[in-house]
């Protein structure tokens, strides 16, 4: 291959990897906290999210082997 083609290909790879890193840095981190008011086995993410909303969290989901309701917010 010609030297220019190889250099162009390497530059393209660098640009692809650099853009991927930039996207990951801008993603917000999420913090999870067990719900304080949810009772029983967490089966429905919708019910968990509704309880988390009353606790001041924007999201919630059922997690783990014990199926606990985890409230989620951006850190």
Automatic annotation (TrEMBL):
Domain Knottins-like per the UniProt entry, residue ranges: 30-75
Claim: Plastid is one of the keywords in the record: no
Keywords tagged on the record: Antimicrobial, Disulfide bond, Fungicide, Signal
Biological process terms in GO annotation: defense response to fungus; killing of cells of another organism
Domain of life of the native organism: Eukaryota
InterPro entries from the UniProt entry: Defensin_plant, Knottins, Scorpion_toxin-like_sf
Signal peptide limits: 1-28
SMART domains, alphabetized: Knot1
PANTHER family: DEFENSIN-LIKE PROTEIN 1, DRO1 PROTEIN-RELATED
Protein name: Gamma Purothionin
Species the sequence originates in: Vigna unguiculata
């Amino acid at each position: 291959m010609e030297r220019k083609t190889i250099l162009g290909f390497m530059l393209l790879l660098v640009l692809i990897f650099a853009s991927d890193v930039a996207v990951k840095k801008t993603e917000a981190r999420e913090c999870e906290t067990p719900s304080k008011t949810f009772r029983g086995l967490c089966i429905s993410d919708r019910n968990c999210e509704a309880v988390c909303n009353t606790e001041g969290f924007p999201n919630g989901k059922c997690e783990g082997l014990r199926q606990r309701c985890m409230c989620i917010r951006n850190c």
